Amino acid sequence: xxTIQAIxxxxxxxxxxxxxxxxxxxxxxxxxxxxxxxxxxVKTFEISIQLGAIMAIVMMYFKRFLQGLTIYFKLAVAFxxxxxxxxxxxxxxxxxxxxxxxxxxxxxxxxxxxxxxDKKVVAQExxxxxxxxxxxxxxxxxGLIQCFAMIPGVSRAAATIIGGVFNGLDKKQATEFSxxxxxPTMFAATGYDLLKTPIVFxxxxxxxxxxxxIIAFITAWLAVKVFLxxxxxxxxxxxxYYRIIIGIVFLIWMNKVVL
Length: 259
Fold this sequence. Notes:
By secondary structure, the protein is mainly α. The protein has helices spanning 3-16, 23-34, 40-48, 50-60, 62-65, 70-96, 100-123, 136-146, 156-165, 171-196, 203-234, 237-258.
């Protein structure tokens, strides 16, 4: 991995991590297009820079996390399905699902679903006055739907937002719950990935890693700010259109490469 490639991947991670368009999917597609060899360092790089994006959310919602313990209990319940299924299915997912065709297909299907739910969200009023008052049953079901995001290209943000909408949250609450749930989910997933991956790197590789973390942090911060404004004004349909377009373009590109 070159310095330019590392910068590009880190920017992609930061921009896409909390948007409903799949950061993992975009990194897989970008790596394929740039011809990056998925060696031990590259895999660890793509996993580790997620910590930079996570810290952006921690900093942005720092006061929210200090308001009380209630939200922690709800997030713990929502995180439980992912923790169990992720642990059991980790090896299968890594071996069979991390490929460009799965990503492109998931992007298209997820895009269609986002467009369809956008119509539902426009008129929907929240059944919960404040996010902390979401009941444990609905929190659990949001977490259960989040498990679909283990398929590359589905998008953790898209899954949890869709889960939030179908469990009585309005678009703003669903988006915020997605952000908050990202913290335990991504810390756990990143930590487990790093434990499963050997880390013996050169000085230059550690420099690339540090640079990637900083870039992912900055771009994630900016992306979330913009995303909240877009959702408030336009909803989710435009992200759905984008997913479908990028998925189709990549399928066409892959077909030409194979031929």
